[in-house]
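<context>
A single protein, sequence plus fold
<sample>
Here is the protein in question:
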Amino acid sequence: MTDGFVSRLKASLTKTRQRFLAPLEEAMLFHKKISP
């Protein structure tokens, strides 16, 4: 494996993680607002 491939893989992983975690965190905050 080349360094370029690894860095690209990490970048794509971070992107997907942000894409999935952002809505999840928003849902958690929304849930906290509803339930005291």
The chain has a mean pLDDT of 91. Helices lie at 3-34. Residues 1-35 form one domain. Residues 9 and 28 are 28 Å apart (CA to CA).
